[in-house]
Amino acid sequence: MRNMSFNELSSKEVISCCDCTRLGFIVDLCIDVDTAQIISVSIELPGGFFSFFKRRIITLPWDCIKKIGDDLIITEYILPPQQPIEKKPFWKSIFGK
């Protein structure tokens, strides 16, 4: 059994083996204090240009993680599809009509 610090774990990119998408990096862990086991991991999804203002974080059960390698963490998880954003014309957002 190899020990790994949170710093090492959070520097590895999480990849889904189901659809080969890059999910992001681990930002938090949920640990059961009684058994000292990891319950789940929180992953920050990569964002677009305005991702600084809005962070998207998903929580994966530890059972979804299949392999931890030197550079990557392989998981069996598929992102749910995002709801399309309704775009209003610029003048309607200003005047409200």
Structure description:
The chain is 11% helix and 37% strand. With 97 residues, it is mainly beta. It has one domain (6-79): Roll (SH3 type barrels), CATH 2.30.30. The chain has a six-stranded mixed β-sheet, with no helix packed on it. The chain is elongated, with a radius of gyration of 18 Å. It starts with 5 loop residues before the first helix and ends with a helix. The mean pLDDT is 82.
Key words describing this protein structure:
97 residues; mainly beta; six-stranded mixed sheet; 2 helices
What topology does this entry show?
Layout: H1 6-10, E1 13-16, E2 22-32, E3 37-44, E4 57-61, E5 65-68, E6 72-75, H2 90-95
Parallel strand pairs: 1-6
Antiparallel strand pairs: 1-2, 2-3, 3-4, 5-6
Fourth CATH level, the homologous superfamily: PRC-barrel domain
Task: Give the second-level CATH assignment, the architecture.
Answer: Roll
Number of helices: 2
Overall average residue pLDDT: 82
Tell me the total number of β-strands: 6
What is the CATH fold-level name? SH3 type barrels
Q: Give the quaternary arrangement of the chains.
A: single chain
Secondary-structure element string: HEEEEEEH
